[in-house]
């Protein structure tokens, strides 16, 4: 981690910026998927939201839980639980001055695994598709964390 | 993204630091709002927490779900889903060397929209107040992501 | 925040990198704890996941809610709500050029408090153990936010 200053406008950092932005945008996309299911299936969490589809009575009935909406919400939460660690550890990893090829491999595998994970989750593909993509993402992040801790350890 | 090193102690980066800290503190505030509702309404998720308000029996009854507490929790989760992307993308955006005025506009609009969003959510204001503030926040983040990807793209 | 460029490969930044990585890895560990409880107690959120433990009928019965699994999931969410602010504010704090001893104190107290918090939550230790560790973590983050805002304020 000695030459951090020069690393920051390096190709590794540009690559990190690109992949981190893409995967965070993918995570934000889940809000739209949730909204889409809520509006088309007329399922809401808040009474005030029901006016978006209905103005008459019986609005209270639309405040309910739907398995498809819950599935998308779990996928979104799983993204938060995994993409946030990738961004934090990937940023520190990029500052340790890794080889460009190795860094790109980590970023591409992680981002690819999360896109497949989302498709597997939302479309309820048979296991172990989702489990594997989840594991691949975790492993990539652990591999970067290993380099950060072996390069920058200061307890 | 060529002059990243010089950008870091620029006014844009100071502005990012200020607004990111403020909006993250606002997000942390949700924990206190949740605790406030839990203690005043005596609604808990964990049996061991009920000793905070009661030492006698019937503590099991206090482990239940309350619509007001759930509303605050959804607001907190929505903050996580939106403020985390703002922090990540806003940080990379600040490193692309944007115009100070434009950067301040993005940061102020985002942070303002999230404060109004929280008020609209917790007080259950009629829609589309909350929907609009949510959309404004998303749009601001997308606008910054667009600049990051057009400036730093490295796939 | 004037000498940011020189701070980045300072000991404070190395210490931040180390503690941030450790506490984010701890947060990721919660996924394994959840999986462990799901597989041993045979409790799932998604029908397709039940094939991981059973191939015959009656798989629908395994899609249910279990108090122990929900406890671990709340602990994981609480980590997200608290560790993410620590990482964001701690990073900006590290850039303000704090005294190494003071910075290490903040990072160690926070990370220690979150480890004890997890044990207290998962093992359902009597209150106020969990409440105190939660408070200590919050206080540490607020203390760093105070320094960021007093050093870097730019509205």
UniProtKB/TrEMBL annotation, chains A, B, C:
SUPFAM superfamilies: MAPEG domain-like. It holds the Pfam family MAPEG. Its main location: endoplasmic reticulum. Its EC number is 2.5.1.18. It is an enzyme of class 2 (transferase). Keywords: Acetylation, Endoplasmic reticulum, Membrane, Mitochondrion, Mitochondrion outer membrane, Transferase, Transmembrane, Transmembrane helix. It is a multi-pass membrane protein. GO terms for molecular function: glutathione transferase activity. The keyword Zinc does not apply. It catalyses: RX + glutathione = an S-substituted glutathione + a halide anion + H(+). InterPro entries: MAPEG-like_dom_sf (IPR023352), Membr-assoc_MAPEG (IPR001129), MGST1-like (IPR040162). It comes from the Eukaryota. GO terms for cellular component: endoplasmic reticulum membrane; mitochondrial outer membrane. It is found in: Endoplasmic reticulum membrane; Mitochondrion outer membrane. The chain crosses the membrane at residues 12-37, 80-97, 131-149. Belongs to the MAPEG family. PANTHER family: MICROSOMAL GLUTATHIONE S-TRANSFERASE 1. Homotrimer; The trimer binds only one molecule of glutathione. Conjugation of reduced glutathione to a wide number of exogenous and endogenous hydrophobic electrophiles. This is Microsomal glutathione S-transferase 1. It comes from Sinocyclocheilus anshuiensis. The gene is LOC107655601.
């Amino acid at each position: 981690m000695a030459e951090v200053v020069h690393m920051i406008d390096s190709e590794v950092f540009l690559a990190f910026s690109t992949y981190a932005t893409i995967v965070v945008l993918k995570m934000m996309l889940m809000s739209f998927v949730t909204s889409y299911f809520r509006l088309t299936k007329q399922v809401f969490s808040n009474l005030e939201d029901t006016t978006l589809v209905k103005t008459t009575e019986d609005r209270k009935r639309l405040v309910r839980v739907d398995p498809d909406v819950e599935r998308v919400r779990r996928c979104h939460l799983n993204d938060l639980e995994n993409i946030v660690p990738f961004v934090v550890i990937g940023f520190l990893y990029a500052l340790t001055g890794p080889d460009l090829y190795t860094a790109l491999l980590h970023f591409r595998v992680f981002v690819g695994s999360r896109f497949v994970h989302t498709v597997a989750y939302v479309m309820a593909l048979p296991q172990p598709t989702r489990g594997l993509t989840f594991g691949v993402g975790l492993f990539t992040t652990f591999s970067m964390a290993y380099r950060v801790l072996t390069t920058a350890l200061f307890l």
